[in-house]
Specification:
FAD/NAD(P)-binding domain, alpha/beta, five-stranded parallel beta sheet, 21% strand, 14 helices
């Protein structure tokens, strides 16, 4: 029986588990959350307003399928590697985890060996820094929605939602449903970019039209203003948020002089898209490729990475939403379990994946980050929140290797290990280097920084010797099989 390990229990991981089980594999799922569902299904039965959650029936089906798998929730997976088993029966994927409460002193050591691995680690919010974003009351858009969906809590009485992408709409709806007055949704992309992304071949978007109508209706019912080509360029307040400065933005997201105005609010939810969690793929040596849109795991039509035993699905291969993640997860699960590509059970998932890849390209065209956002910053703007590193310190050391800059400034070396600031630091460094070299467009330098991070090279922030924080005692809590080179 083929042994399949699945890292992550969001939509992609759950779909992979269901498919691999259906193919007769022995499945082990490891997830850091207390319950399956990932970021998308972060709801609580009996508490979450049904209007905040989509696909509940599908989630229930996937959750029921997990009864046939070994599931480790609350699992901090700190190592993944390709090893040579003692019996010499070919290479195996080995995962090591500490299972239990994050701050608990008695977590259980778990070692999982598998014939194939599906990486479905998802993505987290990307919030670009702005002056004042370290004030209490500023959150990511995803955190604001999670509090609303899971706990029925609003981040503020008067909340401003800003950033880029359709995700801002369900965030605004969720906040309104838990009682916050949403004083505005500010989309950074201008009409031209939105039209270029969404207007061609409108029939391809019929499956999304119902969701759009629902969110548009919510904005109307709750009288929430929606502004295009506008963004928050400064958060105001002494000890917490008291207001925000919004400005009109040009096509590259640079603020237009004279358009600034102040909006009174006590909370700001920022979301400029998502950044994938690549650490596990990089630790295994899987190829990672990128440009100014970001970096993603390279996969073939079978969702197989550059390691034959390792598959990837969901946001780690490209930001496409839950429907794309479900389709990719199903393909990865079947193929990891040994099912052939022409098996009829893959037909629907392959069709949906191809459709959602077109949607992902539209999403990037319409809402992708533009290089002018760095014009929001002044020299004293904190970029790395954990270590309170300002833009000035990063720019002053931009010419040295990135590792040396990090050691000198501490940027990206705090508790979040650059998960919050990494992309912003890279963009600021790239822009400073481009300016020093006389480059015409900083965007070209950002492309180079992302492309240079292939295979987890030192130019990026995604390579980590341990995937999750562990105690020294937990490192020696399990026997270590003899492993070959990654």
């Amino acid at each position: 029986m083929t042994r399949v390990a699945i890292l992550g229990a969001g939509p992609a991981g759950l779909a992979a588990a269901e498919a691999a089980l259906a193919a007769g594999a022995h499945v082990t799922v490891l997830d850091e959350g207390a319950r399956p569902g990932g970021q998308f299904w972060r709801h609580r039965p009996g508490l979450t307003d049904p209007r905040m959650q989509h696909g509940t029936r599908r989630f229930e089906q996937l959750q029921a399928a997990l009864a046939g798998a070994d599931v480790h929730s609350g699992a901090a997976v700190w190592s993944v590697e390709l090893c040579e088993p003692a019996d010499g029966a070919g290479r195996a994927v080995v995962l090591r985890a500490a299972v239990g409460p994050v701050d608990g002193a008695g977590r259980d050591a778990v070692v999982v060996e598998a014939d194939a691995l599906v990486i479905a680690t998802g993505a987290h919010d990307l919030a670009l820094p702005i002056p004042g974003w370290t004030l209490p009351g500023v959150t990511t858009a995803g955190a604001a929605q999670a509090l609303a969906k899971r706990d029925g809590v609003s981040v503020g009485r008067r909340t401003l939602v800003a950033g880029a992408g359709p995700f801002l709409l369900p965030v605004a709806q969720s906040l309104a449903l838990v009682g916050s007055e949403v004083v505005g949704v500010h989309e950074a992309s201008r009409v031209g970019a939105l039209a270029k992304g969404w207007l061609p071949k409108p029939w391809q978007l019929l499956g999304k039209s119902g969701e759009l109508a629902e969110y548009a209706g919510a904005l109307v019912r709750h009288r929430i203003p929606y502004r295009i080509g506008s963004g928050v360029v400064r958060v105001l307040g002494d000890e917490r948020v008291e207001g925000a400065v919004v400005a009109r933005l040009d096509a590259d997201w640079r603020p237009l002089p004279g358009t600034e105005r102040v909006i009174e609010c006590d909370a700001v939810a920022l979301g400029h898209g998502f950044t994938p969690r690549l650490e596990a793929a990089i630790m295994l040596g899987c190829e990672v490729a990128g440009d100014r849109r970001g970096r993603f795991v390279v996969v073939d039509d079978a969702q197989r990475t550059t390691h034959p035993q390792v598959f990837a699905a969901g946001e780690v291969t490209g930001i496409g939403g839950a429907e794309a993640a479900l389709a990719e997860g199903a393909i990865a699960g079947f193929r990891a379990a040994g099912v052939k590509q022409d098996d009829p059970r893959l037909r629907d998932a392959l069709r949906v994946r191809d459709r959602m890849r077109r949607f992902a390209r539209r999403l990037e065209t319409a809402h992708g980050i533009r290089p002018g956002w760095t014009a929001w910053l002044d020299d004293d703007t904190i970029v790395c929140r954990c270590e309170a590193v300002a833009k000035r310190a990063i720019v002053e050391r931009a010419e040295v290797p990135l590792r040396a800059m990090r050691l000198a400034t501490r940027a990206g070396l705090g508790p979040c290990q650059a998960r919050t600031c990494g992309r912003a630091v890279e963009a600021i460094v790239a822009e400073a280097r481009a300016s020093a070299a006389g480059a015409d467009e900083a965007g070209e330098a950002v492309d180079g920084a992302n492309a240079g991070a292939e295979r987890g090279s030192a130019t990026g922030f995604d390579r980590r010797p341990l995937l999750a924080p562990v105690r020294l005692g937990e490192l020696g809590g399990s026997d270590r099989p003899t492993c070959g080179e990654n």
